[in-house]
Amino acid sequence: MKMIIAAIKPYKLDEVREALTAIGVRGMMVTEIKGFGAQSGHTEIYRGAEYAVNFVPKMRLEIVVADSMAETVVDTITNTARTGKIGDGKIFVLDVAKALRVRTGEADDDAL
User: Fold this and answer.
1) Residue whose C-alpha is closest to residue 57's, from 78, 80, 79, 37
2) Phi, psi dihedrals of residue 92, rounded to the nearest 5°
3) How would you class 59 by CB atoms within 10 Å of its CB: exposed for 0-12, middle for 13-18, buried for 19 or more?
4) pLDDT on residue 91
5) Alpha carbon of 32 to those of 6, 10, 50, 85: distances in Å?
6) pLDDT (tens digit, 0 to 9) for every residue of the chain, 112 residues total?
7) Which residues have a Cβ under 8 Å from the Cβ of 75 and sit 6 or more positions away?
8) Which is it for strands 56-65 and 2-8: parallel, antiparallel or unpaired?
9) Cα separation of 62 and 10, whole Å?
10) Three-state SS across 8-23?
11) Cα 20 from Cα 42, distance rounded (Å)
């Protein structure tokens, strides 16, 4: 199994969720996060005063899928979340040693 962690722009969340549902992803966890990457934040003007925004709002998706589906999920997120501008996000793929469905006790691929 693989865990895919993706940080994407907030306004892309619904579009990414719909695309993942269409390819058969049955669940994910979503968290509002803040961070910075290559752009190291930016400056904004609010009520005539300029201030620095050091952390940019993002959405963090966590999805666990079977090994065979991981590349498809990564490709779907990449193609759906891409705007071509700085700050589109990052995707990380990690190995998952075990998964367990609490309600039924099903384990690993059956728990997904």
Assistant:
1) 37
2) -120, 140
3) buried
4) 98
5) 12, 8, 25, 20
6) 999 999 999 999 999 999 999 999 999 999 999 887 776 666 666 677 776 777 788 999 999 999 999 999 999 999 999 999 888 899 999 999 999 999 999 999 888 8
7) none
8) antiparallel
9) 14
10) ECHHHHHHHHHHHHHC
11) 31
Question: Which residue has tokens 């384990």?
Answer: 107
Measured distance CA(110)–CA(104) in Å, rounded: 10
Residues in contact with 36: Cβ distance below 8 Å, sequence separation at least 6, in sequence order: 54, 55, 56
Percentages (nearest 5) of helix, strand, coil residues in the chain? 30, 40, 35
What six digits make up the tokens of 63? 């999805």
What single-letter amino acid sits at 7?
A
> In the structure encoding, which two tokens stand for residue 68, read together?
């065979």
